[in-house]
Design a protein that fits this description.
There is one protein chain. With 179 residues, this protein is an alpha+beta fold. It contains 6 helices and 8 strands, in the order E-H-H-E-E-E-H-E-H-H-E-E-H-E. The protein has helices at residues 22-33, 37-48, 101-115, 127-130, 137-140, 159-163; strands at 12-15, 51-59, 64-75, 84-92, 120-124, 143-144, 152-156, 167-171. Strands 1, 2, 3, 4, 5, 6, 7 and 8 form an 8-stranded mixed β-sheet that branches.
Length: 179
């Protein structure tokens, strides 16, 4: 489903979550995915130190609208010199899906991630959705990972992220539940 901008930009506020936000984030993730697996993943990524950063989107009233997380991915060979992240999970409250919340959250978070000096970001998801942010399944074919196929995509931020391929990557231990 392609999002259409129906929220005014000023109605969506992005920020880093605080410890106090964690129960609401867990509740939102469970509501959006209809299960607890992704919520456990976020908790475990925080606990093992693999979380690069998280962002939340809130409405003008402070209500939580969306959440995303980036975690560290480790490359081998040429890839060991690169800073590689995985975008997962991403969720938006089902009541506001398709209204631009996810697009704003993802684009601004990717801009922040690039600003941190990351070389490459990986994602699993709909090519129809993630290609709008520059993710490419052809680039991802040069990355050997437990996840393969057309929904495995990569976004390069640097020349090294485009040219130091191919290589293998290892996701943080909490992802093993999804292999």
């Amino acid at each position: 489903m392609v999002e259409t901008e129906q929220f005014d930009e000023t109605e969506i506020h992005l920020r880093e979550p605080s410890k106090d936000d964690e129960p609401a984030i867990h509740s939102l993730i469970k509501k959006a995915f209809g299960q607890s697996n992704e919520g456990r993943l976020v908790k475990r990524l925080r606990a093992c130190g693999a979380m690069v950063f998280e962002r939340i989107a809130t409405g003008r009233d402070g209500k939580l609208l969306g959440h995303l997380a980036f975690s560290r991915v480790t490359g081998t060979g040429n890839g060991h010199r690169l800073k590689i992240s995985s975008l997962a999970p991403v969720c938006v409250d089902p009541a506001v899906q398709g209204k631009g919340v996810g697009s704003k959250l993802i684009q601004e978070a990717l801009d922040d991630l690039q600003g941190l000096g990351e070389d490459l970001c990986l994602v699993l998801g709909s090519p129809d959705y993630y290609t709008r942010f520059g993710f490419d399944s052809e680039l991802a074919k040069k990355v050997s990972a437990p996840y393969a196929g057309p929904i495995f995509m990569a976004l390069s931020f640097t020349q090294a992220g485009r040219e130091e391929l191919p290589f293998e990557v290892t996701y943080a231990t909490p992802f093993r539940e999804f292999e």
